Amino acid sequence: MQVHRGPVPIDLGPAKQRAVLAALALHVGHPVSIESLLGMVWGTAQPVSARQLVHTYVARLRRLLEPDLPPRGRTNIISSGPGGYRLMTSRELVDVTRFELLYRQAKQFLSADESQRTFELLGEAMRLWRDPDLTELSSLLNSPERLDLLRRMWSDAALDYVRTGLDLRQAATVLPIARRLAATEPMNELAQAQYMVALEQTGRRAAAVRHFDDIRVMLKAELGVRPGTELSDAYRAVLAGDDPMPVRAGVASAPADPVRPPWRGRGPGLMQLIYRERDLNAVISILAEQRLLTITGPPGCGKSTLALCAAACLRDNLPGGVAVLDCAEITHAAQLERRLSTLLGAEPGSAAPSRLLGDQQILIVFDDVEHVIDACVEVVDDIVRACRNVSVVVTSREPLGVPYETVWRLRPLRVSSADEPHWTAEPPAVQLFARRAAQVSPGLRLDSDQMRTVAGLCEQLDDLPLAVELAAECLATETLDQLVRRVDDPLRDLQPPRRGLPLHHRSLQAALLRSLNCLERQERWCFLRLGALPLTFCAAKAEAVWKSSPYGPVDSRLMLMRLVDKSLLFVRRDRGVPLYGKLRLVHRLATDLGMTERGKYGAYAVAAP
């Protein structure tokens, strides 16, 4: 029994309180009398105060489900009626009733001999189940008839799912369900036969033969009978090496593997996050309330890593799973739509992504979209408006700019002022450096003096995770002293060999130039002039260097806002006065490229977008 706000679980309180909501959820949309609730929650052993306890539990549940409303207004989800209560949410938002709807739809397609659509619907229905034995609900509710009906429905749907999957040569996909079904229905010969077929089709003939022997012994001991026709036919086909075609369903014994929601696209990183717990918790909390979150920040600060880590934390709460679309090489909206359709398992151009997603409860991550902001807005807006169960996370160096967007700004790995008084560990950027250095140079140990050197080096690199990792990777072939000299010109010299990553993750120069290429002509001209200013400056200083733009008058206030939005500047207030700042690496880029215009650093020349 779980409730989610967005993709995030809500703590429902004690067992009896959970049982009240479970009873209402099993009858979503229909009134449930107090007498029925008492029977399902306590059975015949009802305490004297049981009726009052039901009212108390409902009041608490209403507070959990609608925390922002006044007490008397919290009736949109659990309403009161004559003699009882009713859960008012959509039937499609309750897994039990959504499962029933999907199964009915699948049977219609099955009768029409549309195997592929049947398989897709049944697969979605299967992903809604965590435990076909309904162990927790059995302990919460005194309702054996209703729970037995649900178990039988799962078994029937699982039989159809496995059979259809075997028809479509998807044995590897259906094998976990086949195994679970065989364990759940040990006396069902159809299930056992189909499990043997699944084992055979996945190249496990010996396991299929052993399973038949186990079932034969069990049938003899428990029922005194021999295996039936379908099970025997499947066994003979396995022995003969024929291609055993599925009977009417199939599965097996052994402990059941958990069926996890799918993960499509690039998987989460293998690295543990350092000093990002607050960011991770904030992202997860935001997704409990909002359906569109954009993670922004300067190049190389770890936006993608944070988004993928959050998606991995939320995956098991989403029946539709997670889809990660890498947008680094995408150039326009049509291409983005095609890639997303392919990622979701459809033919490119077969339907808009919003139609493919429908009512699935899924999280989509659009990664690295700053160079195709307009295209991303077009696709994301259609999905968020049309698909009420879809949550979207975008990583970008600037926000999408739509009115319903929540923005989380990620900063470099610098200990906050609030943490400084009790921070005792090595600075997080130093920890990241040491970990990466130990990977590229196993056995490397840095003494206290060297760690102080590393701390200074990380500070020069703005504590940016990408810059710190690139520096650490240089220790594969160099000493720390040699590395310190490299950091004198990090944009040129921090380029260790890297494969399997986008180009803008392979060097600081490429990462920063990507931001520059996302600027319009006027914005780029203004940005390069900021190289003449110190790391921190006021608006008046910027206005002074922007007086003679070849692209027309510059609105300084608006331009500063745009450069802050694009993560090339940051802003803070000093006694109420806004001060603008640049990272050292960004300042270096602006300075060097400003010199390029005067012909001094041709290597940094960048074509106008």
TrEMBL record:
According to the UniProt record, which residues make up the DNA-binding region?
Answer: 1-89
Q: Which GO terms describe its biological process?
A: phosphorelay signal transduction system; regulation of DNA-templated transcription
Q: Which Pfam families match?
A: AAA_25, BTAD, Trans_reg_C
Task: Enumerate the spans annotated as OmpR/PhoB-type domain.
Answer: 1-89
* Gene3D superfamilies cross-referenced by the UniProt entry: P-loop containing nucleotide triphosphate hydrolases, Tetratricopeptide repeat domain, Winged helix-like DNA-binding domain superfamily/Winged helix DNA-binding domain
Q: Does the keyword Cell cycle apply?
A: no
Q: Which UniProt keywords apply?
A: DNA-binding
Which ranges of the sequence are coiled-coil? none
- Superkingdom of origin: Bacteria
GO MF = DNA binding
Does this entry carry the keyword DNA-binding? yes
Q: Which family does it belong to?
A: Belongs to the AfsR/DnrI/RedD regulatory family.
**What is this protein identified as?**
Winged helix-turn-helix domain-containing protein
Instruction: Please name the taxonomic classification of the source.
Output: Bacteria, Bacillati, Actinomycetota, Actinomycetes, Micromonosporales
